[in-house]
Amino acid sequence: MTHMTYLEAAVVGLIQGVSELFPVSSLGHNVLIPALVGGSWARDLNVARPESPYLAFIVGLHVATAIALLIYFWRDWVRIIGGFFRSVGHFIRPAPGTDRWRLESADEKLAWMIILATIPVGLAGLLFEHPFRVLFGHPIAAAAFLVVNGLILYAGERFRRRASLQADREVAAARQLAAVGAGAAVPGVDAPARAPGETAGTRAPGAARHAAGHQVERAAEIAQAVEADRRLAREGYAEAVVIGSAQILALLAGISRDGVTMVAGMFRGLSREDAARFAFLLATPVILAAGVLKVPDLTGPLGNGIHGQILLGSVLSGVGAYLSVRYLVRYFRTRTLTPFAIYCIVFGLGSIVYLSVR
Length: 358
What we know:
single chain; 15 helices
């Protein structure tokens, strides 16, 4: 890399963290924005070069993005990884009275669904990442694929199957029922532990109510996550592979990994909320693996002189990713992909026009 300023590293890091999880394509934005800014940005931040240090930088930021996802979903990953090891134990020592390997819990099945769904995109990435990037990692191509991404998101909402719409209603009804139950349980938790020397009279009533409300909300979120994983585990392995394979399209700069995975999930009958959750779970091992593969590049000659920039970009990428997934998990409970579709189409078309006439 000829040069990378701290400003460039900060902007790229923040864009990577936020746009990796929003359905708007992080790679597409990281190709387009330097070209739109022009000047030294276009020279320094060129992803299409055969041995692009800039690509190593932005993919290396995936490690920070994946860590943010692991932090947010850590309880879920503890359950899922535990399910995987229990399933291996069942294989080594089948249940008494049977010689057949049988998965006994939703966590066990979901672990294998994620593994099988990750294999296609893992193989495709190893085989086609470089030629796809060299052929299509140019600003005009990225802008065109961003428009395509917007059309995919719009079509995913406009032509949703009845099964997916029904799943939305069922999830909403289950959440409403759980909220009623949680509300009834509030008096039982409305007495959080006091600090040393603190008495009931010294505790601010508003603070106590806020603490109790936060405990109830967090407990409800954990219960909803477990229930969502049970719903996902009712899907077949073939459906998981189909949904996971949609991530292959994200090798094209401008196509969003989470966006196309969500659309594929809704097409297979998942609720929008469950499709988003499955997309985030599927993205975690893929993003982490892609980042880890690029770490040696960043610690070698390509990273000389930019270690401070790498650190800054990684921190901002991780913070942006954590805040994004926290927001999006709540957003997709009640809202749609349509605003992101409109944004991608408008920004993509605007970029094509600007880059063509500049």
